[in-house]
Amino acid sequence: MPRPPRTALAAFGATAEPVPLPGGRGGTWQAGSLVLKPVDFPPERRGRAVVLAGLPASTGFRVAPPVRSATGDWVADGWEACRFVAGSADVGRPDDVLRAGIAFHEAVRDVARPGYLDLRDDPWSTGDRVAWEELPVEASRPALDLLEPLVAARRPVDLPAQVVHGDLPGNVLFAEGLPPAVIDWPPYWRPASWAAAVAVVDCLCWYDAPPDLVDRWSHLPGWDQVLLRALIYRIVTHDRATGDWSPDQVRAHRPVVALVAGFSARASAR
Questions:
Q1: By three-state DSSP, how is residue 200 classified?
Q2: Which of 203, 209, 170, 201 has its CA nearest to residue 186?
Q3: Where in the chain is the domain with CATH 3.90.1200.10?
């Protein structure tokens, strides 16, 4: 786990000794009132920071305000910084997570499509493009077995796209008396209801959410089709990132595949 170099700490004005924080794929550090982490893709960091820095205060959500370096850049020696925000993730509150996401997406609804999305090349971007039929389905045999009923049920989707947060569970922090904080934003250009669907399938696969979570949010636009694409996205991403299809991994996904495919079949029959 790399430690922020002294040059990056100095560039962002950090004076406290950094200590590691949980989450953030093991690379996030707190130094006093600042949180620092490595930058994987500088164009995304800079574009995201400009949006976050310009958001007005909201009663529906908070953000971790980005911090410029001494040079005025949002990146210093391969690191970024933001202000520390109070709160803890609680994946047992999926409905509150989704409500925070909806408020956040309303606030960023008019942001133009970021050009850096066309340059991003990683397992998450690949999974997203496969889910939306911009790339062919190519995966390992265990993944293909899970994907088959989902891919077969896809139908055309006519929903407006906007910039969205593609990983809400675990990145919404709750603190008593404060709006939830939306952090660690990976931007995508998809319908806002797709971002909610990703949160739902994550909660179903990994956080013991009850199956009726699907029905509770079925009023969102194109719900059956965005659920299919959310689950395709996660399966393909996992396949590309790890290739690990242990029995536990398959067991986590299989009932959710059945649930989402069944929901889509019922929606199509109506």
A1: helix
A2: 170
A3: 94-269
Q: Specify the residue for token string 């000794």.
A: 17
First to last CA, the chain: 51
pLDDT digits over 101-158, tens only? 999 999 999 999 999 999 999 999 999 999 999 999 999 999 999 999 999 999 999 9
Q: Are strands 172-174 and 181-182 parallel, antiparallel or unpaired?
A: antiparallel
Beta-carbon neighbour count of residue 201 at 10 Å?
28
Under CATH, to which class is 6-85 assigned?
Answer: alpha beta
Average pLDDT on 19-33 reads 86
Domain with CATH 3.30.200 in the chain: 6-85
Q: Give the span between the Cα atoms of 126 and 108, in whole angstroms.
A: 24
Q: What is the DSSP string of 58-93?
A: -SS-EE--B---TTS-S-BTTEEEEE----EE-TT-
Listed residue (123, 45, 106) closest to 81, CA to CA: 45
Is it the case that residue 1 has pLDDT exceeding 80?
no
Query: Which burial class, exposed, middle or buried, applies to 262 when counting CB atoms under 10 A from its CB (0-12, 13-18, 19+)?
Result: middle
Token pair of 32 as six digits: 């006093």
Residues, the chain, total? 270
**CATH class of residue range 94-269:** alpha beta
The pair of three-digit structure tokens given for residue 98, joined into one six-digit string: 């989704």
Alpha-carbon distance of 125 to 172, in angstroms, equals 21
Would residue 26 be called left, alpha or beta, if left means φ above 0 and alpha means ψ between -120 and 50 degrees?
left
pLDDT digits (tens, 9 = 90+) for 37-87: 999 999 999 999 999 999 999 999 999 999 999 999 999 999 999 999 999
